Amino acid sequence: MRIMGLDVGTKTVGIALSDELGWTAQGLETLKINEDENEFGFERLGKLIKEYNVDKVVVGLPKNMNGTIGPRGEACQRYATEIENLFGVPTILWDERLTTMAAERVLLEADVSRKKRKKVIDKMAAVMILQGYLNSSMR
C-alpha cells in the first residue's frame, strides 16, 4: 500500500511517495504544469499511480492563517476531485500551511544553493505534506 503526496502549485506539482509500509515519505519528482493553459500533468500522475500501485493520494490544502480557504485552496480541491474522477483513488486534503516555508528552511540549513533549492522545493514540500499525514495516521 503506497500513498502519494502532492504539493500543487500553478506551475509545478511536487510529488512524494510513501514506502510500502506507509511509514516514510520520499520525494519522487517535480512535475511541470501550466494552470493557465489547462495543463495539469494528469497523464504523468496516472502513470505514477499505476506504476507504484498508489491507493491513496494526499493533496496539500493551502489554508489562510485564519483557517479559511482562498482561491489557491479551491484550485487544490478541484485538483483532488479530478484525481479521484480520473484514477479512482481516494484523495485526502491535508492542511499544508507553512510547509513550503519549512521546506525552504530545511534546504537553507542544509546549505543548498538558491538555484538547487528552486528545483527541489516543491518536491520537499510534498514530502513534508505526506510525512505529516503519515505521522498523524500512525497514532
TrEMBL record:
Keywords: Cytoplasm, Hydrolase, Nuclease, Ribosome biogenesis. It holds the Pfam family RuvX. It is found in: Cytoplasm. Residues 1-103 form the YqgF/RNase H-like domain. Its EC number is 3.1.-.-. Coiled coil: none annotated. This is Putative pre-16S rRNA nuclease.
